[in-house]
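The material for today's practical consists of a large collection of protein records. Backbone structure tokens are a discrete shorthand for how the chain folds in space. An example says more than a description, so a record of this kind follows:
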Amino acid sequence: MKFVAYERTLQGTGASRRLRLADKVPGIVYGAGEPVKIELDHNALFFALKKEAFHSSILEMELGGRTEQVLLRDHQVHAYKPIVMHVDFQRVDATTRIVKKVPLHFVNEEISPAVKIDQCVISHVVTEIEIECLAAKLPEFITVDLGALNKGESVHVRDLKLDAGIKVMRRGRTVMTLASALPPQAEEEEAAPVAPVAAAPAPTKAKKTEKQNKK
């Protein structure tokens, strides 16, 4: 994806506020050289941020007549208004090794035996994973094939087919579950144990009336 940025000369809170009033977004580009302060068109950036690829792929930034490869690193939005407040990019090249979260795309769920035969519900445990790789190898997304999933089974990170050089950041976790096939809700309710009904207390004999006691 491509976008256009402009070098920003004015700095400070007041300058950033004036930029936002002019429908511009202040930002910065760092890495592989001196950091450069930039500004971008707010509406173009706002709609670009809605696209998955803008967050998880190498971008081409046009700045001052040159095109550089960058990676979106951070962005801030207003607490309750649809306004982008600031954005950070990192310069990358083919030799840059990066750590980045990448979205998962689940496919063939509807044709899996778990869904087609056993009417299971597929639970997507996570929707993205963190990987380490060369910038040139960064995938826009990772495909998770659920076509062979059976009832009661799960798909784990170890089941993924990743390109050489892509490492999943496990952060100390030995097993990372991506999706599971859960039995239908009706089946779960049927299997649930039924609590025994408590017996009603035996009726107590009514006290004799005062007249009966006198007899």
Summary: The radius of gyration is 30 Å. The helical segments are 13-21, 42-48, 52-56, 113-116, 185-191, 210-214. The chain has two domains: 2-93, 98-187.
